[in-house]
Amino acid sequence: MRTVILGGGFAGLSAFKTHDSILIDDKDYFVLTHRLVDVVKTGNPEIAKIPYKNVLRATVKNIDFKNKKVITSGGELNYDKLIISLGYTQKIFPNTDKIENVEDALYLREKIMNARKIAIIGGGPLGVELASVSIQLGKKKDKVYLIEGQDRLLSFMNYKASNYALNKLQELGVDVMLKTKVDSISQGVIETSEGKIDADIIISSIGFKGSPLISELGLSNINSRMLVDEYLQSVDYEDVYGAGDSATTKSFIPMSAQVAVQAGRRAMLNAIGIEDKFRFKQYAIIVRIGEDYFGDLLGTFVQGKIAKLAEEYGIHRAVRLLNQ
């Protein structure tokens, strides 16, 4: 039986290492998404890249589900079982920049280094980390704004984490604007519920969605995430499975590296007939401001060495997967 995996992120790589299969990715390296903000900070793309081993490099163009064929830039590939793990894309406002990959990170670094006024929309982990890096990078900044529509940063995390982030960013000089709605953006001007903001660079960090290819393929989806059942099986095709950020059940699966690793393994086991329902555990959500690590570990606020160890565990797990 031939099992083909589309996408070599945390989920795809986990599936690939679980059972003999073919993994297709459009890059020849694995991206440590944890490290993209570090690329912005340092300008070194290699800290977020690990070379792949035994991965077929090609771009997925289409899938013939009826005849079980993946059409790629390198030709067609037949499959018996297919695992779709194409990762995430960012939700963005028009006329803003994003950070989805290494190239985006390097581009943002150059813009941030030469900007005097920077606005970041969205106070989740990415927005918080970008704000802390932006205010310290390059020339002296007149203003770094972090705009959040809700009444606290890191709204899905522990309140202690939210307050910790707010205090740390304010100490650095970031202008944190809570309960502020963005109405429109054009030519470096943000119209908000609190008035106009001028900025040399405007960055979206308002959340994530699945791969646009999911919708283009006609698959049932929520937020461009392929809709799967509790066994991670596509609701449209019985020989197709989904894992990671590009797949979700109706009851929702979190978009995180640690959950993606669990989903990739379970999707592969189910695809080869070792069936069980997918049950995930979100162990930790860690954020960094400067050299301060903090966040949630099993629902409890942590900071310092414990938080740093929890963050590094996820990175080391990816490296181990690649080197197995």
From TrEMBL:
Keywords: FAD, Flavoprotein, Oxidoreductase
Entries under InterPro entries matching the protein: FAD/NAD-bd_sf, FAD/NAD-binding_dom
Gene3D superfamilies in alphabetical order: 3.50.50.100
GO molecular function list: electron-transferring-flavoprotein dehydrogenase activity; flavin adenine dinucleotide binding
GO CC, one annotated term: cytoplasm
Name of the protein: Pyridine nucleotide-disulfide oxidoreductase
Signal peptide: none
Family: Belongs to the FAD-dependent oxidoreductase family.
Species of provenance: Acidianus manzaensis
Domain FAD/NAD(P)-binding: 2-264
